[in-house]
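Much of what follows relies on a compact textual record of a protein's fold. Here is one such record, which you should read through line by line:
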Amino acid sequence: MEQKSAQANSEITVRVENIGGIDSVERTIQPGLTVLTGRNATNRTSFMQSLMAALGSKSDQISLKSNASKGSVVVDTDEGEVYTRTLQRSNGTVVMDGEPYTDEPELLDLYAFLLRENPVRQAVERQEDLHDILMRPLDTDEIEREIERRTRERERIDRELSDISEKKEALPSLEQRHHNLESELESLRESERELEEERDDLEEEQPAEHVTQRSDELDEKLHELETERAQIDKQIQRKKAKIEGERSEIESTTVPAVDWDDLEEKHDRLQIQLEELQTEIEEAQQIRSNLSNGLQAAQTLQNNSFSLDKALETIDDSVDIPNGPLLRSDDSNDTVTDESISDVLVQDVPSRCLACGSTLQNDANEQIIEQYKALNKGLVAKIHTLERKEANMQDELDDIEDTIQEHRRAIDRIERAEQSIDDTNAEIEQLREDRDAVVAEIDRLTSEQSSADLGSNIDETTKRYNAVRDELRNLRVEIDRTESELVDVTEKIDAIEDRVAAQNRLEEEREAIVERLEELRTKVEQTEMELVEQFNENIDMVLDLLEYKNIERIWIERTGASDQSVRSAENETTFDIHIVRKDADGVYECQLQHLSESERNVTGLIVALTGYLVHDVATHCPVILLDSVEMIDANRIAALVSFLSEQTEYLIAALLPEDTATVIESETAVTEAITIGNSPD
């Protein structure tokens, strides 16, 4: 049983210490169907709760033995994997720690651990919204957030593809310009070679070398200055292009239109409300922990130092205390003592309730346990409501923080661009000053060279030499300019070709994003349809197997789903369960509450199995635990466990001895039947 990928034929060993009613027990579980057999109060449920803890449950059903300060459950596999969960009593509460098999407690508690208090079974029993209980693992808020992220990514790729398309349109003209520049450069270099040859010939004809020496020096210096001026001009052009880019950035940056002060005030207010809500949730959870001590005392009839009256006083008006021994009468003047409730419950004669002073009948223990459970359900409902409110408030807070961050990023981008423009303008101004200095020096040296040439008694050969020299210098400046432009055009072509080369990849990414968006937008609907289809198929097979003669059909209908692109309270999808009975007068539709207890329980188990299959719970935990099926007759239990065992690698079912015998006698392949024993549940 390897985490996330259980291996076939892998046995597991379970060691339990001080959990529920168990002191200490060790059992080995084989793949297939394992039956925990025995009468009630033989710790079958405690053993299952221990397994729940080791596998990853966070259910409040898992309890530490009332007279112990700590407990543990360890699961060993024959592949050497070890999973441990510890329970420690601390400051009146029980804290669970350790490394369980999986970190998906909601999936397991909803669809894999099918004990009496399983939320799905209870939802069917109480005729609650099946859509909510079956769709709960699907995080629709996260789906919406991913849709937003993917949409933004698609828009970014669209912008890139549009930019590539525009650049591709400019590519032919750039390539033509590149070709023209190459031709122009070749022509210029040919002219340069011709002038150099003429210059060399004229140098040999010079009458006096010293006459042209100064002019040559000036010519070389002028060439350097002309090159420097050309480089400065190029830098100025690049700086101007950078400024245009920054201005485009400013124009394309959208600053969210928000009331900044109002937004920050709302953010601070929500932050405070969220902290208060989290405190309220912690207090409600603390109350549940307190009440669990009283429930444990009532269940085990063991001493417990917990003050029940103190716990009841901490419950606010939003949770109703159900009628019964725990409910204090308004006119009661009795004083509640710190005596343990279990000391009263174990008496053989009617006694006084510690909470309200009323007389406890012989069935007081069962009444108090039922009251505890009802009270706990009320607290669970309140905590779930608070947690949903917390999640919604956190989403709203996240949206505000995203808006604030987007606003700040937009302002930062604009401020950076404006600062860059200012800095670049300053750089351009400095470059212009440098250029003016270079131009002034060029003018001075040109004037000096002209004076030197004119002041010399030069012949026609020297004059021609000087003219060739000047022409050659200007030609080389033009060559430098052409080479520089050719480099720029080449870089632009290479950049566009690189972008074009990325076009296929971007188009593939876009296609994948579009497919994912479609998948996300239809995921809720597809999951709903799959759940309905899976339930309807399974319930048909199970009804045939269990041979409920007067049930013609049970099925779920998906309603309110006409337009899934717009989800609202008016358009909310529901799962309506339909039941058709058959008798001598024909077929007729009835309600869920009209089913027998056995039929309702089978229906609840198949609803849970539907969630197990559709949400692929087996990939997280290949175990189904089954308890509290005594209301189903033995032959049908045998058929049911046979069907369930085919859906998972490990099915562990708690059965009474007579039901176990029937299961073994049937064709059901029971891997083993084990007892737990120890102190009672």
In short: The longest strand covers residues 574-583.
